[in-house]
């Protein structure tokens, strides 16, 4: 398939017969997922999304991105969790590394900045200061329309827009991505005439990057969302042909990580060797963690950025508690390459690699780590993307979404709900004195 999945380094940890013996469970998980008879089946809209998306809305997204490009230096994207991480991961992966520091002309697209993904007053105030004297638009993204973090940020940026452009001017710069009929954002959009995009009912937050949730911020940053969808659609086709783990890499990955988990490898690290993949790791952590960590079980997902983190947590991975495994995401062809300069004097001892390119060294480093970690009893799998482009990214997004859906069913949980995220919200509301939470307020304050 287009991205390569390599399980060859698992040999010391998993015997071939184990893969045969889990096949019936994978087949059952595949049937559950594809028939819509499994737990959480109301949230399977992501499966056919790359083929079956609203083409009229897609064109509106492209038109909105053009309009934003024509009148804004900055697009402020407000959202959290599934309404944030996909777009951030995609833009960081597709942008050149320092695009945030380029001028509008150099970047050839508006700068996309994010807020509403924490409750930091510093962050919000700094961003307000940064955009206040620039032309900007706002994309507020909230499926429920009531999430506290983006709601607070939206109040702040809506006020700023109105101050700067007046009510009508502000309305023309607000793009709302939300539920088709309910929630505060939808009410605001209807009342003020904001351009609105729909988060489909059947797609949960962490599976929503290929809906307008991800597509508008990605298009606004100047990336080709058609290619992104094409990549995802290719993956959809490739991984729907067979449920056999020897023919379906997404299913093989799902099966293998469950085999490892059942042997006590409780934590998976998604490893990258490109700083621009850091947020892909964040996106994947939510996808895996929110889908699988429930009913007091599930693989705990981590991420690491190598070789940076080899000089920090590398020690622990090599030599600490042996409950880890790694999935390495590699990019075959770097966007750019650079040669190690040749010097007459060899003070730094690099003469043996001078004249080679830096990516060559990166690949050798990752090969070396692969063997060292395997020797240190950390099983490794490798997912290789051919290039750092939209098509590869779309393909990889679908690979991981499908694998996590199957993986959740393999572990006997509902991969598509997230009951655990409500507990902190209730406590926060109680402590903030939200109406309706009076009893909880008293109880929590006594405990504090
Ligand atoms: O994946 C999820 O369901 C969550 O991470 C949500 O995306 C997140 O809580 C934001 O929710 P909303 O889009 O309703 O503001």
TrEMBL record:
CDD domains reported for this sequence: SIS_PGI_1, SIS_PGI_2
Broad class of enzyme this protein falls into: isomerase
Ranges annotated as spanning the membrane: none
SUPFAM superfamilies found in the cross-reference section: SIS domain
Reactions it catalyzes: alpha-D-glucose 6-phosphate = beta-D-fructose 6-phosphate
GO cellular component, one term: cytosol
Compartmental location: Cytoplasm
Active site: 290, 425
Function: Catalyzes the reversible isomerization of glucose-6-phosphate to fructose-6-phosphate.
Sequence similarity: Belongs to the GPI family.
Protein name in the entry: Glucose-6-phosphate isomerase
């Amino acid at each position: 398939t287009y991205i390569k999945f390599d399980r060859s380094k698992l040999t010391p940890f998993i015997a071939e017969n184990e893969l045969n013996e889990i096949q019936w469970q994978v087949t059952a998980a595949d049937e559950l997922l594809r028939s819509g008879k499994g737990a959480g089946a109301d949230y399977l809209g992501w499966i056919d999304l790359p083929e079956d998306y609203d083409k009229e809305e897609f064109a509106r997204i492209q038109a909105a991105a053009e309009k934003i490009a024509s009148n804004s230096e900055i697009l402020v994207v407000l959202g959290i969790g599934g309404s944030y991480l996909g777009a951030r991961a995609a833009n960081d992966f597709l942008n050149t590394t320092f695009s945030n520091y380029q001028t509008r002309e150099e970047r050839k697209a508006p700068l996309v900045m994010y807020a509403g993904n924490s409750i930091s007053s510093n962050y919000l105030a700094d961003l307000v200061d940064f955009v206040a004297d620039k032309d900007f638009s706002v994309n507020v993204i909230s499926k429920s329309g009531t999430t506290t973090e983006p709601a607070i940020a939206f109040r702040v940026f809506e006020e700023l827009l109105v101050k700067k452009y007046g009510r009508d001017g502000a309305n023309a710069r607000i793009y709302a991505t939300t539920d088709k009929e309910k929630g505060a954002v939808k009410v605001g959009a209807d009342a003020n005439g904001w351009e609105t995009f729909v988060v489909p009912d059947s797609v949960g937050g962490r599976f929503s990057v290929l809906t307008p949730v991800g597509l508008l911020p990605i298009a606004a940053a100047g990336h080709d969302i058609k290619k992104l969808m094409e990549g995802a659609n290719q993956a959809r086709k490739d991984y729907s042909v067979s449920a056999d783990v020897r023919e379906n890499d997404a299913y093989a990955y799902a099966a293998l990580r469950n085999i490892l988990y059942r042997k006590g490898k409780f934590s998976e690290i998604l490893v990258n060797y490109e700083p621009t993949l850091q947020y892909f790791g964040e996106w994947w952590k939510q996808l895996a963690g929110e889908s699988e960590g429930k009913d007091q079980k599930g693989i705990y997902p981590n991420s690491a950025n190598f070789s940076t983190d080899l000089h920090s947590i590398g020690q622990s991975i090599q030599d600490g508690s042996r409950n880890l495994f790694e999935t390495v995401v590699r990019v075959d062809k770097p966007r750019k390459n650079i040669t190690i300069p040749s010097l007459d004097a060899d003070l730094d001892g690099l003469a043996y690699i001078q004249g080679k390119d830096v990516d060559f060294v990166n690949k050798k480093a990752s090969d070396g780590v692969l063997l060292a970690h395997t020797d240190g009893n950390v099983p490794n799998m490798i997912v290789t993307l051919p290039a750092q482009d939209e098509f590869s990214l779309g393909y990889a997004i679908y690979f991981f979404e499908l694998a996590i859906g199957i993986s959740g069913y393999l572990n006997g949980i509902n991969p598509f709900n997230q009951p655990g995220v409500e507990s902190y919200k209730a406590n926060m509301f109680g402590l903030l004195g939200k109406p309706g939470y009076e009893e909880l307020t008293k109880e929590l304050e006594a405990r504090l």
